[in-house]
Design brief:
128 residues; alpha+beta; five-stranded antiparallel beta sheet; 4 helices; 5 strands
Amino acid sequence: MLIENLFMDPQTDKIGKLIAKFQSYAAWTAEKRAARDKFVTALTNANYDEFTGHRKEYHFSGIGSGYIYQVPSNKRGHLKIYRNQLIRIVCVGQSRFEVFYMAGAVNFNVAKLISFKDYLDQRLNKEV
């Protein structure tokens, strides 16, 4: 994955708001588990596809973390069906060797999204 194709998830739609609520919990309480179940159910109802991968392939593994990805026209593997589309990829679970993801098309204006590269540059500039 090229970093130029990655964008921060604005979390402004229904699913994004459910993910943000899940992320607001600090500890794994019963409420956080219920929030996780709620956003996974919303992803399933929105026809997101579930697949497994490795942390090194998708660059994240924390449950509830994710990003917006502009899938290139030559993409292969699990995301091949989303070629030339803007999608959200979310981590929904993990085991010792695998990470469980869900992905689905979204309708965001790319021009209004913050690129992951710009986000990292801003964070590095603040730390210096």
